[in-house]
Design goal:
By secondary structure, the protein is an alpha/beta fold. It has helices at 14-27, 46-57, 70-84, 99-110, 125-134, 153-158, 182-192, 256-266, 272-283, 287-309, 335-346, 372-387; strands at residues 33-34, 93-96, 116-121, 137-142, 164-170, 199-203, 229-234, 247-250, 323-324, 348-349, 351-352, 364-367. Helix 2 crosses helix 9 (272-283), helix 3 (70-84) runs parallel beside helix 9 and helix 4 (99-110) packs across helix 8. One of its GO terms (molecular function) is L-aspartate:2-oxoglutarate aminotransferase activity.
Length: 388
């Protein structure tokens, strides 16, 4: 068979490869601590689960509108108004089966041969994968440890040219936990006035996971770019709903119909019961969100202090998400070598920084979406192994 050339350009997400190997080792009897996968270790709050069950009992078994049921889109609009002061018409909201779908839609709309799309590096690997699949040139925005893994607006603006179609921003970020400060967003938006045809995809899936009183700064707060800003968010991380596959995009009015058309052509609609569960998540008590965030904050302190005690490691304190991204250059090993050694020898699953781009060499990603006891045991194993 002769496959389309674009298939050869399609990458993957290495965290799932690490997970698969970890599962193999566990099946063979090994004790594996998984700090590789970016998934909350909490159960979905009960009132959300019950809403899905009730939806099924009430007969919500059929197709829904391609852009999502109206009550859910209205709830998203209300939530954005209450939390961010963002005025969004429900018709601008497109409900999708997971955040990656909004990512795919935006890149499909703007990516083609001859175009350039800028994306964070180290960053979520699917950005680059989809950009290259589209035929566009993937142009990395370097995120540097010295800046807390935030981008420099001046560097981003200097990289824009007449082929630039889309800029992807992710804050709080995967894999680093870095948060872009408002001053850099101010500078970026001001500079973008010179480039009125460049669109922005703002991936804010971790927006509610911020620590130490840090306030999430959103590009949605800038009305001057509202006509070219695509906002990506969802339920997976905030409400421990990764397996439910539920996200949303907020689109400029002229792009929302195109996103809906892409939905019709790909997944038709999001399953009905999950949408009613998402409605319950937004409308119900937020106490579970607050509790999870407090627990993540305590784990963050535990893992950062522990990593910084390991010879050869140094780790800046991330402002958000649930990832630590320590510099491991002092160990004398490459990221991939140390990733494999820690899994095969110590039984600790991590993800090499190079899985997230060229600027990830010299780093590992640790997820602290795991119990404190597991984190402590993993750190002890790593310290003992490297002490040798």
């Amino acid at each position: 068979m002769q496959l389309a050339a674009s298939m050869a350009r399609l990458g993957t997400e290495s965290a799932f490869e690490v997970l698969a190997r970890a599962v193999e080792l566990q099946a063979s009897g090994r004790d594996i601590i998984n700090l590789g996968i970016g998934q909350p270790d909490f159960a979905t709050p009960p009132h959300i689960v019950e809403a899905a069950i009730e939806a099924l009992r009430a007969g919500h078994h059929g197709y829904t509108p391609a852009n999502g049921i109206l009550p859910l889109r209205e709830a998203v609009s209300e939530d954005l108004l209450n939390r961010r002061g963002m005025v969004v018409h429900p018709d601008q909201v497109v409900i999708v089966p997971g955040g990656k779908v909004t990512m795919f839609m935006a890149i499909a709309m703007f990516g083609e041969p001859g175009a350039e799309i800028m994306y964070p590096d180290p960053g979520f690997p699917i950005y680059r994968s989809l950009i290259e699949w589209s035929g566009a040139k993937a142009k990395p925005i370097g995120l540097h440890e010295s800046k807390g893994f935030a981008f420099s607006a001046d560097e981003v603006l200097a990289g824009i040219n007449d082929r630039t179609r889309l800029i992807i921003v992710n804050s709080p970020a995967n894999p680093t936990g870095g948060i872009v400060p408002k001053c850099e967003l101010d500078r970026l938006v001001q500079g973008l006035e010179r480039f009125p045809d460049v669109a922005i995809l703002s991936d804010e899936i971790y927006a509610r996971l911020c620590y130490d009183g840090c306030q999430h700064a959103s590009l949605s707060a800038y009305p001057e770019i509202a006509d070219r800003l695509i906002l990506l968010d969802g339920w997976s991380k905030t409400y421990a709903m990764t397996g439910w596959r539920l996200g949303y995009g907020v689109w400029p009015r002229h792009l929302a119909p195109l996103a809906t058309r892409l939905a019709v052509n790909t997944h038709s609609c999001v399953n009905a019961a999950t949408q009613w569960a998402g409605l319950a998540a937004l409308k119900g008590s937020q106490s579970d969100v607050a509790r999870m965030t407090q627990i993540f904050a305590a784990r963050r302190k535990l893992i950062i202090e522990g990593l910084n005690r390991i010879p050869g490691f140094r780790c800046v304190t991330p402002g958000g998400a649930f990832y630590a991204f320590p510099n491991i250059e002092g160990t004398g090993r490459s990221a991939r070598v140390l990733q494999d050694e820690l899994l095969e020898t110590c039984g600790v699953a991590t993800v090499a920084g190079t899985s997230f781009g060229q600027f990830g060499e010299g780093y590992l990603r640790f997820s602290y979406a795991a119990a404190s006891e597991a984190i402590e045991t993993a750190l002890a194993r790593i310290a003992a192994y490297l002490a040798g």
